[in-house]
């Protein structure tokens, strides 16, 4: 590949990551819209739809291209699905309780958390850059939660979003451990297959009647699938750290989409906190791990 062709491929990969961030943001905003009001989709309902549609689409892709399905490390594939199932149900639960932008911001702390976890999983020592990034991101989160004034109380929505970030960070390290044995389509399929039993117990409430809301639920699942495909394609041309930096556009996309679709208007302190936290997370993802042993700090979002 010539230098010019390589530059074009990298530019296309950045556009793919920007599109992935928009799709992830759209998924989150539509999920919050569906969860509003009585008789709507619960977090469990949306999780089941997400996994079921993802598994069916994956099977259709494998039918067209059988060589894509190459499972190898079944133990880690199942572990990825179980942790991913918890991520999805917790994230949708957060979206049902707090604004989409706030939920996305808290969840988007997972790249820095994944970098910290890698110290225990792989012996990778955190750097000064990671400490600085954590302080900056924490300050941004405080601004968003407090709208300019720190508050002691934290609701269940915030707790669910942070828990989702912790499990997403765990998933990131699991993916790193099996990257050499399994490809992205196979990992995504097992993410759906093993995650489905995890979320099924949370979907026992009466399901909504057939109607337009089901079209929106399908759009949630397809937006998530598109986000995953775009992100996976981009990783062929960009390093993990650069890709992770571009994926920090996700909470910004959620805030932008929440305005026309949900009517949520963040205040100036929340906007400043978002910018500060995104800058901190991006900085920590790009510089928080040592160059000799980079960490996969991106996991499939709910």
Task: Summarize this structure as a short list of keywords or feature phrases.
302 residues, mainly alpha, 12 helices, 0% strand, disordered C terminus, EmrE-like, transmembrane, membrane
Secondary-structure element series: HHHHHHHHHHHH
What's the mean pLDDT score?
78
**Percent of residues in beta strands?**
under 5%
Structural class: mainly alpha
Report the principal-axis shape: globular
N- to C-terminal separation? Answer: 35 Å
Largest sheet: none
Helix content: over 70%
Total individual domains: 1
Number of helices: 12
Q: Give the low-pLDDT segments.
A: 148-153, 292-302
Number of strands: 0
- In angstroms, what is the radius of gyration? 18 Å
Short description:
With 302 residues, this protein is an all-alpha fold. It has one domain (17-287).
Word description of this protein:
The structure is a single chain. With 302 residues, the chain is mostly helical. The protein has twelve helices and no strands. The longest helix is centred in the N-terminal third of the chain and has 33 residues, at 3-35. Mean pLDDT is 78; it is low at 148-153 and 292-302.
């Amino acid at each position: 590949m010539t230098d010019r062709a390589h530059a074009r491929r990298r530019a296309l990969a950045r556009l793919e990551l920007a599109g992935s961030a928009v799709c992830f943001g759209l998924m989150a905003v539509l999920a919050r819209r569906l969860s509003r009001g009585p008789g709507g989709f619960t977090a469990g309902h949306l999780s089941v739809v997400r996994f079921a549609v993802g598994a069916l689409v994956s099977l259709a892709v494998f039918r067209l291209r059988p060589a894509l399905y190459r499972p190898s490390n079944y133990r880690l594939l199942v572990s990825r699905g179980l942790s991913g199932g918890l991520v999805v149900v917790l994230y949708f639960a957060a979206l049902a309780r707090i604004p989409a932008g706030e939920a996305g911001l808290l969840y988007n702390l997972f790249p820095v958390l994944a970098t910290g976890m890698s110290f225990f999983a792989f012996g990778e020592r955190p750097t000064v850059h990671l400490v600085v990034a954590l302080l900056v991101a924490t300050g941004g989160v405080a601004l968003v939660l407090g709208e300019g004034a720190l508050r002691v109380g934290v609701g269940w929505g915030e707790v669910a979003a942070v828990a989702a970030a912790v499990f997403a960070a765990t998933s990131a390290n699991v993916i790193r451990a099996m990257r050499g044995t399994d490809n992205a389509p196979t990992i995504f399929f097992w993410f759906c297959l093993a995650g489905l039993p995890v979320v099924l117990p949370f979907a026992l409430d009466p399901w909504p009647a057939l109607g337009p809301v089901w079209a929106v639920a399908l759009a949630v699942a397809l937006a998530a699938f598109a986000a995953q495909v775009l992100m996976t394609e981009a990783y062929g041309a960009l390093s993990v750290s650069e890709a992770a930096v571009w994926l920090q556009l996700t909470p910004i996309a959620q805030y932008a989409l929440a305005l026309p679709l949900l009517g949520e208007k963040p205040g100036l302190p929340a906007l400043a906190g978002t910018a500060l936290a995104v800058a901190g997370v991006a900085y920590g993802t790009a510089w928080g791990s040592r160059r000799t042993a980079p960490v996969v700090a991106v996991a499939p979002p709910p």
